[in-house]
């Protein structure tokens, strides 16, 4: 019986890697190793996003590859995230076309869109311009697909004048052309131009245009305009329903501006209209609620999410750390380790920040040891978090060790070291690091000068403090804020230059806060400036912040008491009572059964408070019996 020959197949039926391999095998069996079937196979492999090494092997086995072969392989490299290799292959094609005669392959209109995509991914503007010139030379500039790719490349390189020139000169435009130019203007902070073009479009806008403009308005901080435009989208009747990308853009804008009313409206819109919520929308919702201070609602969203990825966990952890609940961040991390997710550097930075806030030195050391044992790359962000954690936990020597060993130092790491040394009263060392920072070419920012001025304040270095405060403005062009003035007032006041400190406060461009008044009052207490304290008391008494005034009120009361001004003491204390001023309770943490617990004085909010008080009272009784009344 004769064996039946392999049956011919249709390329349209090849819809998986397995079928592509079968097709490849059939090509080999049928001895069809000439260019046409190999080209079809390569194109199909690229369409199916098959492994790059497989596509490369097929390409390199094509005898005399043509422009279609090269175009397919360039496309494969760009899709696989290898823009440099795609550019190299394009250069190879140019060399072949330039020296191989009439039959040699030359770039076609199929290759150029992906070469341009590679150029924009690499921010290679000059390459993009050279490719544009080559396109014009070969006569492909009128091709719609190539023209759209040129607009996209110029937009992504922020060359909007070139993009607009290309757009205006196109003989034909489609929706992609309009999407590209409108999105480009919006992403470059020129949303007004986007809106103008949007209104000029011959057809109704699609969801891409609507989302791009809403995103642009949000990035510019025009939250009200963003919501108005979004409502316009809903009422347009052109079928452009908001998708996940739209909702993520709206939520991100509300999050970055901490605009809780707008964020709550978007959140309610999602719930009421049953907008499909994927993991990106969930993460954006959690992040928005956290940044706006709604941690309870953020946790509810987090717990109810059907899907969570690492970004979702990180958003919730970051929210807890920023929101002053480090113990919740640590507990959340413990829950995350029970899943299949592995922490990334953002997770670890959050964890170290939580340990820093809690003063949990041993836990921080354990995390550092585990990090070293795992062989993970300790980048500049982790180095900064480690320096900050050790400094805040009192181990400034270990902070210095991490700093010295860091392979690369950015501004954040320099600042962490300067502020850490300042907090430990090591002013000379802080100034030395600041000098090294300047020598390394790192330009200081406002945070740097808070550390430097704080160091001078703690050490009583009046002249260096004055000089650095002057440099901040005159040399680095930085505008002092309340923290910088607070450091200077504290420095001058402690050194006895109370009148100079008061003059500085009176010359401030912003309203002084309670910290500045408190520093000035403390100087009055130290140097017995009773009359000046009376003058300041008027500003303190009529301040709008009740909790903030507590320290100032206590200082005033003590100053008046030391001077025997009992009527003034009574007035201050009466005001404290009327406004309900009371000390903010301190707290402490402890770990039990794998979870972190937070306690305050006379705490009744903890879930197990009743059992804890019973146990504590029992321990007190037992302690008296065994130790004669002492615990």
UniProtKB/TrEMBL annotation:
InterPro entries: E_motif, PPR_At4g14850-like_plant, PPR_rpt, TPR-like_helical_dom_sf
Keywords: Repeat
PPR repeat residue intervals: 143-173, 174-208, 309-343, 410-444
A UniProt-annotated Pfam family: E_motif
Molecular-function annotations in GO: RNA binding
Keyword Repeat: yes
KW Repeat (keyword) present: yes
Biological process, per Gene Ontology: RNA modification
Name this polypeptide is given: Uncharacterized protein
Naturally occurring in which organism (per UniProt): Spirodela intermedia (Intermediate duckweed)
């Amino acid at each position: 019986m004769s064996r039946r020959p392999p049956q011919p197949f249709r390329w349209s039926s090849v819809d998986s890697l397995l079928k592509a391999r079968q097709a490849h095998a059939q090509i080999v069996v049928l001895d069809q190793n000439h260019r046409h079937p190999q080209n079809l196979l390569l194109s199909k492999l690229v369409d199916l996003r098959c492994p790059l090494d497989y596509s490369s092997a097929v390409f390199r086995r094509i005898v005399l590859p043509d422009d279609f072969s090269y175009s397919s392989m360039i496309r494969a490299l760009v899709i696989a995230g290898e823009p440099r290799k795609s550019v190299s292959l394009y250069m190879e094609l140019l060399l072949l076309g330039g020296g191989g005669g009439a039959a040699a392959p030359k770039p076609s209109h199929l290759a150029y869109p992906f070469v341009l995509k590679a150029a924009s991914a690499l921010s290679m503007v000059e390459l993009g311009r050279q490719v544009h010139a080559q396109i014009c030379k070969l006569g492909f500039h009128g091709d719609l697909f190539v023209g759209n790719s040129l607009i996209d490349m110029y937009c992504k390189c922020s060359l909007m004048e070139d993009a607009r020139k290309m757009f205006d000169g196109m003989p034909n435009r489609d929706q992609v052309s309009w999407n590209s130019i409108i999105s480009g203007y919006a992403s470059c902070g020129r949303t007004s131009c986007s809106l103008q073009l949007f209104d000029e479009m011959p057809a109704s806008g699609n969801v891409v245009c609507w989302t791009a403009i809403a995103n642009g308005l949000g990035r510019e901080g025009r939250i009200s305009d963003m919501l108005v435009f979004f409502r316009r989208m809903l009422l347009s009747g052109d079928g452009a329903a908001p998708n996940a990308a739209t909702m993520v853009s709206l939520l991100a804008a509300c999050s970055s501006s901490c605009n809780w009313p707008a964020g709550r409206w978007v959140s309610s819109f999602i719930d009421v209209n049953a907008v499909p919520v994927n993991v990106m929308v969930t993460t954006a919702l959690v992040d928005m609620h956290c940044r706006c201070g709604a941690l309870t609602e953020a946790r509810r969203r987090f717990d109810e999410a059907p899907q969570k990825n690492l970004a979702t966990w990180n958003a919730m952890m970051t929210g807890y750390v920023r929101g002053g609940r480090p113990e919740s961040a640590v507990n959340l991390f413990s829950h995350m380790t029970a899943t299949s997710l592995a922490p990334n550097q953002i997770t670890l930075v959050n964890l170290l920040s939580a340990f820093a806030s809690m003063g949990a030195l041993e836990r921080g050391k354990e995390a550092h040891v585990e990090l070293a044992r795992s062989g993970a790359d300790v980048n500049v962000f982790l180095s900064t978090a480690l320096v900050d954690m050790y400094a805040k936990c009192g181990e400034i020597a270990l902070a210095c060790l991490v700093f010295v060993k860091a392979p690369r130092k950015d501004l954040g790491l320099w600042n962490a070291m300067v502020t850490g040394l300042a907090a430990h009263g090591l002013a000379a060392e802080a100034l030395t690091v600041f000098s090294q920072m300047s020598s390394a070419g790192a330009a200081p920012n406002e945070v740097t000068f808070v550390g430097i001025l704080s160091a001078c304040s703690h050490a009583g270095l009046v002249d260096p403090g004055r000089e650095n405060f002057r440099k901040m403005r005159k040399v680095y062009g930085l505008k002092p804020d309340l923290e910088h003035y607070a450091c200077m007032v504290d420095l001058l006041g402690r050194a006895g230059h109370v009148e100079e400190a008061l003059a500085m406060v009176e010359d401030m461009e912003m309203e002084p806060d309670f910290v500045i008044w408190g520093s000035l009052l403390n100087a009055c207490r130290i140097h017995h400036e009773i009359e000046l304290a009376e003058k300041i008391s008027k500003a303190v008494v009529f301040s709008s912040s009740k909790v903030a005034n507590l320290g100032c009120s206590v200082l005033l009361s003590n100053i008046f008491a030391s001077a025997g001004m009992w009527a003034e003491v009574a007035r201050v204390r009466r005001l404290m009572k009327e406004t309900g001023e009371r000390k903010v309770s301190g707290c402490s943490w402890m770990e039990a059964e794998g979870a972190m617990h937070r306690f305050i004085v006379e705490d009744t909010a903890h879930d197990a408070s009743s059992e804890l008080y019973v146990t504590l009272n029992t321990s007190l009784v037992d302690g008296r019996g065994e130790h004669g009344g002492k615990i």
